[in-house]
Amino acid sequence: MHSTPDELITIGQLSMRFLVDGRDTTGHMAMAEMVVQPLAKVPPPHRHVDVDETIHVLEGSLAYRVDDCVRVLNAGDYCFSPRGSAHYFSNLGNVPARALVVFSPANIGPEYFREVAGVLGAGGPPNMELMRSVMERHALELVS
Predict the structure, then answer these.
(1) Domains of the chain by residue range
(2) How confident is the model over 3-20, as a mean pLDDT?
(3) How far apart are CA 53 and CA 108, in angstroms?
(4) Check: CATH 2.60.120.10 for 9-142?
(5) 3-state class of 87 per DSSP?
(6) Of 65, 105, 117, 118, which residue has the fewest beta carbons closer than 10 angstroms?
């Protein structure tokens, strides 16, 4: 059964379309198709307090950092970011990068990305206090 609507959530140069969310898996995992536009450096370095993340690149490439390890992931490559690890990625290429992202458990899902899109799309400079509040509610932390 598929309970996630065919919704594209766009946050600047990153977009997410959830294929499976926690309602489909009784909270065990969520999976999304992610597209990162060329030359995008998103998201900022962060960590998930209680969620593991696995990314599998389908098209293009991403420079992906987990703690002190940096790799270039090309189509067919994957990377695992265990909960608590600092990670971020960027698309240094000239074509969009498309990847599958799996969150386990499904504590990070479409609701988080909708809220972030709302904060960052409100116009003007981002309200970082509100952004941190959204992140904290979903057990994410910014890393310097």
Answers:
(1) 9-142
(2) 89
(3) 10
(4) yes
(5) strand
(6) 118
